[in-house]
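Dear colleague,

Following up on Tuesday's group meeting, I ran the structure prediction for the two-component complex that the binding team flagged. I've pasted the input sequences exactly as they went in, so you can double-check that nothing got truncated or mislabelled along the way. The structure tokens for the whole assembly follow below. Feel free to forward this to whoever is handling the docking comparison.

Inputs:
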Amino acid sequence: MPESVVDATQALIPVTVLTGYLGAGKTTLLNRILSEQHGRKYAVVINEFGELGVDNDLVVDTDEEVFEMNNGCICCTVRGDLIRIIGALMKRKGRFDGIIIETTGLANPAPVAQTFFVDDNIKSRTRLDAIITVVDAKHLPQRLADSSEAAEQIAFADTIVLNKIDLVTPAEADAVEALIRGINRTARIIRAEKSNVDISALLNQGAFDLSRVLEHLPSFLETDEHSHNDDIASMSFEAKRPLDPEKFNAWIGELLAQKGQDLLRTKGILSYEGDDRRFAFQAVHMIADGDFIGPWKGEERTSRIVFIGRNLNRPQLRRGFEACQADSKAAD
Amino acid sequence: MGETVSADHILQTRGVFSQFDAYTVSACFDAKGNAGFGLGDGTVRINPHAQPLGWLSADAHDGALLGLCTDPSGTGFISGGDDGALMRITPAAEATRVAGFGGKWVEQVASFGDAKTQLIAAGVGKRLHILTAAGATLKTVEHPSTVTGIAFDAKGKRFAASHYNGASIWFVASKTDNPRKLDWKGSHTGITFSPDGDVVVTSMQENSLHGWRLSDGQNMRMSGYPSKTQSLSFTRNGKWLASSGAESIVLWPFFNGGPMGKAPTELAGGDEALCSVLTCHPVQEAVAAGFSDGLVLMADIPNARILPIAAPGRGAVSAIAWSRDGTHLAFGTETGFCAVVDFTKR
């Protein structure tokens, strides 16, 4: 008989992705994380060695290698270097409390996020905890005007650190926050000066875990038809009656196949007919993933879905989502 | 007949094993029959041929070991690690530095050794360094993206590297450093030569294999795997290519016009566990395989007979190797169980 069987169901290692435009304060934030997290051990994947305080942590320097997947999905790209590096980190003795991945300022976050959906080895050992985007409160409007990456980084974010808030007036701060909300209505926004964020509020938050994101989605935002940024926007929809999983799968599968390039992120918490558990659905472009999470607890079983992307057609999406509701008469 | 023998019988009666507390990254034998296991804690654990119960340990790397191969001299091992070091480990577990790469990960190592030629190959990022056995650099070649696998041909005249969008084949002795480029879209994650040197096969991120026949440039696509194909091995006669990545050992026929248009043969299927690593026997038409549930077995290809070697339950099998003469099998698991099984006649 085996003498020593190690528990194979070790907790998945949380991965935090840190994005943000050059000069937004990303490296300052990373330094804060590494210097303030005493007693915890992180592996940090960066693109070039900066001046990092790294006593207890492992820093891995990498070239971002963005690979197109040959899997019939036209917008599917992954970070090949991360697949290799995270695979090797998982073999190291001594577990990390977390992995932090810093992307270059101009990076599109999609390949990083998709890596965690596509690669089986990575999926089985890590979980994408959050995509954190650091933005510069003063220069964000300009960044949005002159680059598409800035809006994409906001669109993908679970948490946005609105940095350098001390350099703008309260009115400017509110305006820039409204600008962010026009792109991404579900992200948590944390205001900061010199990246002085409570680190414990950033790491291991399960922010990519939708149950929390969508539970707290204020539905009044739905009335905000006006988009401040004509390019990327977000729209959310609700369905009161339980969904028919087959109808939903058929609809979302078709939608992602047709519009996947425009749909940056899709997140949903769904109530399936005949099931007491909440179904969490999420997608990055065409790549979708879903699983049952904990049971509904007393609250109304409303299915919610959010789309963040370009060229969103509100009536079409609403009709499509509502049509996924199970026909209660037939079910009875 | 009729008596049920435990799946662990061979390990218990013919094996020596030890439980370490780090991931088994790689296993191999040297030409003297010493078994080496490279672990995620940076050590190389040695099971000496002359004294199988006396396990030895060498601290090879400050960090994780990433690759292990036989010393091209035939005695001992060469390892690469995430500390940027290329190390030599003797059968007595003495570790010395062969070369250093400034902290860059030495992710891939391979070697070739016969009476005339002794070479070490080290993959460091996009670069592949060819060194003499003593550690002098013979040549350094560069690729468009990180090297993910290295293979020498059976004569040690050429070496091949897998990378994004294909593979590159280089001549060791060539003065002009232009590779023969083998292009195929996608991320290639490992590489092997056929024994006759005419076929190069890569494993791919997209759960498939890709092959090139060098004599006529023909492409061969081998797909249909449910998961990543990490382990590839040709039988000694080159008739079969064995591969991991399915719930069985998948064998592609490289004869009678195959593998094009032929279905692969599957052996040892039936359970849900995935085949995680395998290696063909160096003499017989047989393959040893490890599975994600910890099962280790040997499959005789011509008559499809399966011999269980170790029962499931010690962690997913992550490394496996035959000794050069095929009398001993080494395997290790993700949870640090390492074993050597003796198949000599008793």
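The longest helix of chain B spans residues 9-14.

Cheers,
M.
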